[in-house]
Amino acid sequence: MSKISFLFPFLLPLVLSGCVAGNLADNPALPITKVNVAEQKSDGTHIYWYLSRQNAPERLGERVYNTKQGDYQSDYQWQSGKLKTLLQQGDRLIDGQQVPFELQLRFDSQGVAVYQRYKEDGHILPLTTNEIAELKQHSEYLIDQVERLKKSKQYFEQGYRQQQQLISCQTQQPIAIDDPNVLSVFDPSGYWAAIGKQKNGKLTINKLLPDVVSEACLQAPILIDTKQ
């Protein structure tokens, strides 16, 4: 079994149009578009924080919650529309036990992997050319998936309770929902997460995310040192 296949069990061959790239997209004076969406799949809950500029990808953070296979987080960085760096870390299931893993990949301007490091349960293992190609393809899939979730308004909503009020992590302001009891599956004095849409201080919940457990508002994982 591929060392990385457990991460992407539903990765299908994709023919995607290329992202808009070039010096224009890299201009820091141009506005950044931010998207925070989520989905529930058979392999767990996926949360995405996506940054783009002029329709070209710049950064993507991902958190995955899977009680059976293991939780992990990813950080993708693009330059001129091409994947530059990928870092992942978390746990995976091996022989019935969850063990830590860490993956690092860096690419040159031509898309060639110039650095790779895969560490699993304390052991460094090589990645094959096919595995690296799958990881690059998956990054394209994620961009496409984020756009699909955005179009269907599957936004990631999270918050916490404070003095009998529901507080939104996005606005840090009180928020109302039709039936507050719907959040009873969460700790009554703590954090909650859902897929839905927030407008004018009101939240419409499409789906609860009880497997997302946290003691504070979640942020996009920052694993890549952009100063390198």
Description:
This protein has 228 residues and is mainly β. The chain is built from two helices and 13 strands; from the N terminus they run αββββββββαβββββ. The protein has helices at residues 23-26, 129-151; strands spanning 33-41, 44-53, 56-65, 72-79, 82-94, 97-107, 113-120, 123-125, 155-162, 165-168, 176-177, 191-199, 202-208. The strands form two sheets. Strands 1-2-3-4-5-6-7-8 form an eight-stranded antiparallel beta sheet, covered by helices on one side. Strands 10-9-12-13-11 form a five-stranded mixed beta sheet, with no helix packed on it. β2 (44-53) and β3 (56-65) form a beta hairpin. The longest helix has 23 residues, at 129-151. It is globular, with a radius of gyration of 19 Å. The model is unreliable at 9-24 (pLDDT under 50).
Provide the descriptors you would attach to this structure in a database record:
13 strands; eight-stranded antiparallel beta sheet; globular; 2 helices; mainly beta; five-stranded mixed beta sheet; 228 residues; single chain
Q: What would you call the structural class?
A: mainly beta
Strand content: 35-45%
Mean pLDDT: 88
Biggest β-sheet strands, sense, barrel: 8 strands, antiparallel
Count of runs of 4 or more consecutive helical residues: 2
The global form is globular
What's the total count of β strands?
A: 13
- Uncertain stretches of 5 or more adjacent residues: 9-24
Order of helices and strands: HEEEEEEEEHEEEEE
Distance between the termini: 33 Å
Rg from C-alpha positions? 19 Å
The side-by-side strand order for the widest beta sheet comes to 1-2-3-4-5-6-7-8
Helix content: 10-25%
